[in-house]
Amino acid sequence: MKLNKNLAVSETGFIFNPTSGDSFTANEIGTEIINLMKESKSIADIKTALLDKYDVEGNQLEKDVDDFMVLLRDNNLIQYER
Questions:
Q1: 81 in a domain, yes or no?
Q2: Are 49 and 36 in contact (CB under 8 A)?
Q3: How many domains does the chain have?
Q4: Interval 20-51: pLDDT, tens
Q5: How far is C-alpha 15 from the chain's CA centre?
Q6: In 3D, which of 77, 27, 74 has the Cα closest to residue 54?
Q7: The pTM is what?
Q8: Does residue 37 sit within a domain?
């Protein structure tokens, strides 16, 4: 999975998709996930980094990251690599 390459993402979590003209706002952790994806981190690496940084249970983090990935996919912000 990777971010669409034409996305514009600000440090404050504003996301703009110039292809569709849609814009979104991500919270701090959502922005952190997107920035890690921009660094080509795998989903497993992203989950590990967040578990190391935040006081959260593994199962809850898994669910939250997976839910966020679904939101990104549903809004055409990521694409699955084949």
A1: no
A2: yes
A3: 1
A4: 899 999 999 999 999 999 899 999 999 999 99
A5: 11
A6: 27
A7: 0.87
A8: yes
